[in-house]
Amino acid sequence: MKRWIYPLLALATLLLSGCATVIDNNVTSFHAWTPSYNDKPYAFAPTKEQENNLEYQNYASLIRQELQFLGFTEAKEARQAQLQVSFSYGMNTEQVVVTRPAYDPFFYGPAPGWGRFGPRPFGFYGPYGPFYDPFWYGGPIQSTSYPVFLRRLQIGITEAGEGKKLFDVVVDSEGSRAGLAAAMPAMVRAAFDDFPGPSGVTRQVRIKVDKDGQPMD
């Protein structure tokens, strides 16, 4: 490899590493929110399984940051809270199958037109000519499968005491890499986008993230 290629490769790697990634989220919210709730203190209400769970605490910190940005105040003690925030999360995996013709335009079958570089008695394009379409004439088919990771986050805000539901949002996203934690900052940001947002409407919210997965908006 020539010496001048190495600097180009290094520059390309640097540019790619600095590029932002976009995470698409489907956001559906339902709410009975009024501005009078904006100044009420809140507290998290974890389930018994979520208590002392480090993953839960990490995601709670992300939600806390968004609520603080929106002007909410966390109660110093849970009994002082007028709002309760609860959330759940999870991820499933599905296999996507892609089917396509197993067609190699440079393969000519057995002798006398063998292999990729053997004699070509029918010309460069083989016996079918340049317009041969394996989709039209049929032929061997090959299938390839790959995993798709489906991620979900649900956040609810209720009125303390009476338990009246005020806000409920579900965020769905998918990706080709496993790992819920990497996508969670973007999903939390999407959950509170244009809070409280239109009720009963599913929106696509695109969040740009940096190389560390942190929202850039």
How confident overall, as mean pLDDT? Answer: 80
- Helical element count? 4
How many strands, which pairing sense, and closed or not: the largest β-sheet?
Answer: 6 strands, mixed
SS-based structural class?
alpha+beta
Query: How would you sum up the global shape?
Result: elongated
Give the class-level CATH name of the largest domain: Alpha Beta
Which CATH architecture of the largest domain would you pick?
2-Layer Sandwich
Topology-level CATH name of the largest domain? Double Stranded RNA Binding Domain
* Low-pLDDT residue spans: 1-17, 107-125
List how many beta strands DSSP finds.
6
Could you estimate the helical fraction of the residues in percent?
A: 10-25%
The rounded distance between the terminal residues' Cα atoms is 41 Å
Helix-strand pattern: HEEHEHEEHE
Rg, please? 27 Å
